[in-house]
Amino acid sequence: MLLLALLQACATDESGPHALSFDGAPDCGTVDLTDAPPTTFTVETWLRGDPDAYDDARPFVVWRGVFELSETDNGQVIFTVGPDGVGASHPFTVMDGVLHHVAGTYDGADGTVRLFVDGAQVGVGGTPAFVGDSPDDRVQVGCSNEATEGFFGVLDEVRVSSTLRYTDDFAVPTEIFKNDDDTFMLFHFDEGVGTVAASADGAYSMELTGTAWVDSPLGGKD
What we know:
Elements: H1 2-9, E1 18-23, E2 28-32, E3 41-49, E4 58-63, E5 67-71, E6 77-81, E7 86-90, E8 99-107, E9 112-117, E10 120-126, E11 138-141, E12 152-161, E13 183-187, E14 196-198, E15 205-209, E16 212-215
Antiparallel strand pairs: 1-12, 1-16, 2-11, 2-15, 3-8, 3-12, 4-5, 4-11, 5-6, 6-7, 8-9, 9-10, 12-13, 14-15
C-alpha cells in the first residue's frame, strides 16, 4: 500500500521522536500484565490509518474483557467496555490517511461510555456495572486475538488512564501525553530501533511483532 510504504521509508533517523507502523496481521504490539484493570478509565491514541485498508476490522488498542478501541469492518469507530462489548460508536471511518486523536472513556460510577474523535464527543452509550473479574492478561496495540484483524498505518502515543480525562468536547492535545498520577500505562514509542517498547515509567514492556519504526507524525512531540 503506497501510503504505508512511504511511511516506512521515512524510518531512517533513530535519534528523533518515533511511532509504530503496522501492515496488518500479524503485526502487533503486546503488553503482558497481571494488574487488575482500573474501574474508571480513559484509553487514547494518535493514529494515521491507511485509506486503502479501511474496509475490515482495524483494532487500535484492545484489552479483551475490559475495553476495545477500534474500527469495525463497516467503517464505524467503536469504544466498547466489558466482556459483552457494550459502548459507543461513530459511523465514520478514521482510516483516511489523516492524523486523528481517538479516545474512549468509561465512568465506573454510572456505566457511561464516551467516544471522542479529534476532541469532539461523537458517541455515548451505557453498560451495566463493569465487571473485570476475568480480563485477558495482555493489552494489544494494532491487533487483536483474531488473527485476521490488524491495523494498517501508524500509531503513536498510547495511554490508558485510571480517570476520566474527558467528559465533554475538548481541545485536541498539542503535546505528548503526560505520565502523571492518573496514568495506568503510557507508551511514547520513541525507541526507534529494536523489538521492544518501554512504557514511560518503565513498568511495562511491549513486545513488537512485524512492526516498523517511523518518524512520529506528531513532529517534535513538544
